[in-house]
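Dear colleague,

Thank you for sharing your sequence with our group. We've completed the structure prediction you requested, and as agreed, I am returning the results in plain text so they can be pasted directly into your records. Please verify that the sequence below matches your submission; if there's any discrepancy, let me know and we will rerun it promptly.
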Amino acid sequence: MKMKKVTAFMMTAALAASDLAGCGSGSEKQVVIYSNADDEAVEAMKETLDANGYEGKYLFQTFGTSELGGKLLAEGKDIEADMVTMSSFYLDSAQEQNNMFLDLTFDYKTLTEFPAFYAPITSQEGAIILNTEMLSENNLDRPESLKDLTKPEYKDLLSVTDIKSSSTAWLLMQALVSEYGENGAKDVLKGIYENAGAHIESSGSAPLKKIRAGEVAVGFGLRHQAVADKKDGLPVDYVDPKEGNFSLTESVAVIDKKEANPLAMEMAQCIVEKGRSELIRTYPNPIYEGEEADPENMSAYPKVFPEKLTVSLLERHQELSEECK
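Please find the predicted structure tokens below.
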């Protein structure tokens, strides 16, 4: 019995020591970060945090855009994360519904106005992507517009993403609706889906992966990824569609929790102030004052959708897409 009492005492003492250690600056509670970012952005953010003293002080978990957006809307402040990097339109809608984000406590100067509760970290544009070898082998013309993708010559050689599962497809949808109206967009999208057939993907990066592998000749995806592949010498090229290069921003926000982890705000500031120099190499659109785009990376037809981007608008466009399948 003495041994049991001693053991119990030692365990209690060890737990108490552990609790006290947790209050010290050397072992802060880890910041939980949820993100919908691409691998390139996640790697850049991790490298930035690690290089600035935060290695081992955070847990990074990635989700699809729709999945993370659903969690933000459903869970609000009760979400496990302390900080998120997420498509800005989802952050806007989550804040409107749940009032769940803190105003950022650090200063930043963007080229366009953003709300006080998030700061943009990337801007991503859509474009038509090509496998140059397959174009040649199949005697295919280079498309100049999204409407060109409805031509019979691209039947079963085209890959696009389903807007219900990835926001990448929303860049295509915005271009079609802006140029042709909702009814005209339906006509074009029906032709695109017919040509894509089994190549309507659930992942935003899937069309580019099929382009790289030579499974299809043409696709729609994120412009910066095709630019990088072309520079790396892959048989990949890109076309800025005449309907426009529409863009989506992803931003960092801090959850307004009852027991907020102060490191979350510090890390958000670190990513914005220290990480942009790395992020802009992959995502070349300028966001902050003083940033300049490499002229070689600038799109030919940058455009902004005339309506504010919201989850409600996304859902409307998702319904439009479903009608075209």
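Summary note from our side: Strands lie at 31-35, 58-62, 83-87, 119-131, 158-161, 200-201, 218-222, 236-239, 245-254, 302-303.

Kind regards,
the structure core
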